[in-house]
Design a protein that fits this description.
Structural class of chain B: alpha+beta
Order of helices and strands of chain A: HHHHHHHHHHHHHH
CATH class of chain A: Mainly Alpha
Distance between the termini of chain B: 18 Å
Number of domains of chain B: 1
Structural class of chain A: mainly alpha
Strand content of chain B: 35-45%
Oligomer: heterodimer
Largest interface: A-B, 12 and 14 residues
Number of helices of chain B: 2
Number of domains of chain A: 1
Radius of gyration of chain A: 20 Å
Amino acid sequence: MDSGNIGFVMICAALVFFMTPGLSCFYGGLVRRKNAVNTMFTSVVTIATGIVMWMLFGYSLSFGPDHGGVIGDFSWFGLEGVSLTEPYIEGQGIPNMVFCLFQMMFAVITPALITGSVAGRMKFKSLFTFLVLWSFVVYYPMAHMVWGDGGFLAKIGSVDFAGGNVVHISSGITALTLCILLGKRYDYKRANYKIHNTPMVALGAFILLFGWFGFNAGSALAADGLAAHAFVTTAVSSAAAMLSWMFCDVVVNKKPTFVGACTGMVAGLVGITPGAGFVPVWAALIIGLTTSPICFFMISWVKEKFGYDDALDAFGCHGVGGIWGGICTGLFCKVSINDIGQGNGLFFGDIHLFLAQLASIGITIVVAVAGTLICYGITRLVTGKIRVTEREERVGLDRSQHGESAYPSFNGLD
Amino acid sequence: MIIKVEAMIREEKLEDVLDALAALDVHGMTCYQVMGCGTQRGFKEYAYVRGHQQVEIQMLPKIKIEVLVSSEEWEKKTIDAIQKAAYTGNIGDGKIFSYDVREAMRIRTKETGYDAIQPE
């Protein structure tokens, strides 16, 4: 074992961890003042549930000995038997425990992403229960199928460098399904949903960018050239996506918006995630430039057209960006960059990987939708009504769910 | 004759009251966020912080709306509309007051009295 690799991946794990508080600032700033505490709380509560579950059985179910290519088992219950010296898969440069730590942070942030779509109307206890169940039903199997030893989506030849399928498509599709099941916010299209704290949105977005370097570069699982490559593609894609969102804003509305630029940057990060360690640097520029307009179109036009209330665009950003990133990986993947890829992308004349990417995206969508329906059903049995009452919604979830207030001394209409 | 109607209402009822006033064709108004309490001296709940029960909440956030109308008939209509829209039946629904206003002037045109508070 090389201490450089171990040190690098552990620092990356801490960077990935920091994305969750960043996300809570990003989401917290986007909502109305009366829902700020609830929104921030729901997106960091997965730090508590995610880590405890990961220690008890999450890692074992995700990465334990393979069962049918779909799920692990309970043989590493309580992290017993997770080696401090031997790697998870032969040839990895880090001990199993370091891999476990790094993956733990992914299991923390993924459920947190979902909370954006249901902000402002879901009972805290229901959302909490849903997120716990969702980790079982969707996240652990997805992580196993894509990254686990013997995982079925890896076997069909699809690749996912840092979590396009596992993290972004699964959470984005879940967010969409859940917000449709839950219905619109009471005041949707009636009151003005003002962004209550733009600087906090920006702070959160740039914390996400900072953490994302660990997310993508760390997914090389070694301090090597591939990590540097993923770092570069991540930076290029997010910067390009920020520019192209500003361009969309100017074309549509004449003025570039700060919140738009931050959203575009996050979309660019999502877009590059599956391909960060597979595509050439110039392709990262293309992915970044194209992801924002696609997300922009989905958020500004498709959402309007179909009238689903994806409050903070968890689907529009993560679902759509993740799907587009997965497709782009199938287009631009190059084996000379990373030999895990079992073939070049369509752009270089090989169709096999492209089809495998489409198949893995399709399977992820099916798993996420089915898993969401199951979790929604069980949550209803456990916590009763999933939505808050109309009155609780209007008073605000901060007071009705927690008895707290983000800005108790602040006077100003919301 | 100009009459000012002032209503102290629940925060979450603002949109309902605005809709009710719009339906009446009453459009001009001023809103404030205010703190206050009624004769019950605030809430009977206690603020809960880190496992402690803290002091009783006395001053509660409310919204105050001011509307100027031009006759007693409109005063009554406005008060009725606000009462219906802001009603929940619980303590803390608020109060409505009305006053005579001595004079009004539209700054831009220097119109006074009735003309100052009517749409052009």
